[in-house]
């Protein structure tokens, strides 16, 4: 299986697992919390059918990647992504992030520029800035993130079950847009992630990406569910137009947070049209 080294802990290498399939324009898919690159299966199939080269990878601490005890912040996540981009020598590619993965996309371009990237896509975005502050009054109270981390420390598995149900609006869409077997499969992936990574990643969500977004000089597509319960649309997607000069923004009617699965047809149509 293919791995790339992104660092060391106690003299042992930290590796990220990735998959690289197809040919054509490279599209790098950056998964959301608390899953792995396998969560992109509906987008991977559509992109391969369109003749694209598709690269997925597992964030450190998740999926088949190594689980170090540190590095669960967006500076490190972006550095990991940069190592992968350089190792595969990707050029004129497209970065596609979902949820937490949109933070990697924003921080990567803000730190490493768009030299290797022609376009970017954000599904259920985390940017521009989720945490409340005096200069970010639209943000969410910090106590919510503290409560989530406390829930993870108390009973990580109960937290993950509830989080995944809320991400898919399972009380409304369960059995129709999302099967219960799929929810159980997602839980299995999430439960296998590092407890440290799960906890610390939530703390990272309060990162401020406004300076990163100001450095974007490429077209961006943002797609978000109207009924996103995890990343409130008024705090996230609706605010992107004030920070990106070349933005196409689409709202999926009735869509939850995890639109890549529940509304894959709509997401894939928007994604493929944007890539064309």
Could you explain the architecture of this structure?
There is one protein chain. The chain has a single domain, classed as Alpha/Beta hydrolase fold, catalytic domain (Rossmann fold), CATH 3.40.50. Helices cover 41% and strands 19% of the residues. The chain has helices at 41-49, 74-87, 100-112, 142-167, 170-173, 180-191, 195-204, 210-213, 237-240, 259-262, 264-275, and strands at 3-9, 12-21, 26-30, 53-57, 93-98, 117-123, 220-225, 247-252. The chain has an eight-stranded mixed sheet, sandwiched between helices. The radius of gyration is 17 Å and the shape is globular. The mean pLDDT is 97.
In terms of quaternary structure, the protein is single chain
Q: Indicate how many domains the architecture comprises.
A: 1
How much is the average pLDDT?
97
Order of strands, main sheet, comes to 1-2-4-3-5-6-7-8
Radius of gyration: 17 Å
Major sheet: 8 strands, mixed
- By CATH, the topology is Rossmann fold
Approximate strand percentage: 15-25%
Run of helices and strands: EEEHEHEHEHHHHHEHEHH
CATH superfamily: Alpha/Beta hydrolase fold, catalytic domain
- Overall geometric form: globular
Helix content: 40-55%
The CATH architecture is: 3-Layer(aba) Sandwich
Distance between the termini: 31 Å
**Structural classification:** alpha/beta
